[in-house]
Every structure is written in C-alpha cells, then in structure tokens.
Design goal:
This protein folds into 2 domains: 85 residues, Helix Hairpins; 158 residues, Immunoglobulin-like, CATH 2.60.40.420. Helices cover 34% and strands 24% of the residues. The protein is of the alpha+beta class. Helix 1 packs antiparallel against helix 2. The chain contains 5 helices and 11 strands.
C-alpha cells in the first residue's frame, strides 16, 4: 500500500465523459467480482485456523457426500455474476464503441495519428499543420482520431480522456474522444513496440477555443514543413523525442502512409 502511494492513478482521474464511464465500468466490474473474492479470502484464513490440528473442539469430520444447499450456492452465485458481467459488457460494447461519434453542439474535429519508431506524428488536415509528440484539442469539442502505424503495431492511449485504440500499418482505426477540463494530459503507447517504447509519450493539451487557435498559429509559424526529406528523418528510429512543429504538411500524407503498406502506391 505504501508503494502504491507513489502511483498516478490516471484511469481514476477522468477528464472526459468517455474516461468517466470507463472508470465506472472498472469499479463496477471489480465490485461484482469481489462478491466471490472476499468470501474466498475470508474462508482461506478462517478454515485453517478453525480446523487446525491443535483445535480439537472443532475437529472436521464430515459425514456426508453431497449437499444440495452447497451445490446451489457454488453454482448460483457464479452464474449470477457471469450474467451481471455479461449484461454490463453487452451494454458498454455499444455505449463505449470507439467509432461511435460523440454528440455535441460543436462540430467534430479530425486529427490523424501515426505511430512511428518511437514517436507519435499528429496531422491536422483541417488546419494544414503537423506535430510530433504534442497534440492539442479545444475543450468540450469532440475529436475523431484516425489512427494508423508507420511501423509495428502500437496502441494510442490518453487514459484521462478515454479509450485506447490499436495503431496498425496498412489500416485505419478510429476513436472519438472529448476533453471537458483544460489541462495537459499524458498520452503514450500502451503496446510494447521495441527498444524505445518507454519514451513513446506525448502531451495531450486540452485548451480553450482561443487557446487552440493560438496553438495553431504557433505551429503555423514554425520554420519547417513536413516534406519528404523531413518525413524520412522521422522514420529513423529515435528515442525520447522532444515535441516538434511543422507549419505545412501534405494533405494526403496520412492516406499515403496507409497505402504504402497495402501496395496501392506501387500498383499492386
């Protein structure tokens, strides 16, 4: 317990409705399973003490081979737990579907995400900019993240905002997230991808509408564009990469990266 005080329980500090619902799901599932765990722990301590060899008053001498009451308990309780967990899983499979758009008065913003070795590339097609290991989004604005990989499989995850989603080369995954509180949150890869995996982290900035516009203006003022030469540099394996800004980006870059692994660019 003392060691756990040094942990940062991001999953239990949600900053958006998706993360909040997932936290509730974790807690409810754990409580349901504790219906079995707690009695088992209690009995595993109580039985050895009560029926120990030195305690002759409680000598264990069963004189039966079958008990309908015991059979009813050991079968009914697990069945009810499975039904409860199954119902919860069925419901949340739809309510927490990562591809399900988030209802909002604001239009959904699109951010394209590319996992690389060992860094994250974020492309903003609507703003015409790109960043590395830094992502910004307006508060209370739903964002549709289109996720792929330019290397091995990774997992895109911002615990305080919600669902993780796998990034796989030649494929496009989608996840909808929204931030309800301004701040800078930790994002990382939740799937081991090699030597530099531990440093594959990024800042997820949730800011006001004006703050986001200022951030976009800052990125557009960056001296470098994400051209083919710079992309080739990013594809080189590197660790603990500092945030980078690119003032211009090929609007077809994301689709080109996907098609590179499907053979479409080579006419295959």
């Amino acid at each position: 317990m003392l060691l756990l005080t040094g942990c940062d329980f991001l999953l239990f500090d949600p900053k958006g409705p998706i993360a909040a619902e997932q936290m509730d799901l974790i807690i409810i599932s754990a409580l349901v399973m504790l219906i079995v765990v707690i009695p088992v722990i209690v009995m595993s301590i109580w039985f050895p003490i009560k029926f120990r060899a030195s305690n002759t008053k409680n000598e264990y001498k069963p004189n039966w081979e079958h008990s309908n009451k015991i059979e009813a308990v050991v079968w009914t309780i697990p069945i009810l737990i499975i039904i409860a967990l199954g119902t919860i899983t069925y419901y949340t499979s739809f309510s927490l579907d990562p591809r399900k758009p988030i209802e909002s008065d604001k239009p959904t913003m699109v951010v394209q995400v590319v996992a690389m070795d060992w860094k994250w590339l974020f492309i903003y097609p609507e703003q015409g900019i790109a960043t590395v290991n830094e992502m910004a989004m307006p508060v209370d604005t739903p964002v549709e993240f289109l996720v792929t990989s330019d290397t091995v499989m990774n997992s895109f995850f911002v615990p305080q905002l919600g669902t993780q989603i796998y990034a796989m080369s030649g494929m496009e995954n989608r996840v909808h997230l929204i931030g309800e509180e301004e701040g800078t949150y930790l994002g990382f890869s939740a799937n081991y991808s090699g030597f530099g995996f531990s440093g594959m982290k990024f800042d997820a900035i949730v800011t006001s509408d004006q703050g986001f516009e200022d951030w976009v203006a800052k990125v557009k003022a960056a001296p470098q564009a994400l051209d083919d030469e710079k992309l080739a540099e990013l594809r080189v394996k590197s660790r603990d990469v500092a945030p980078m800004h690119f003032s211009n980006v090929n609007p077809l870059l994301f689709s080109n990266i996907i098609e590179h692994y499907t053979g479409a660019l080579n006419g295959e």
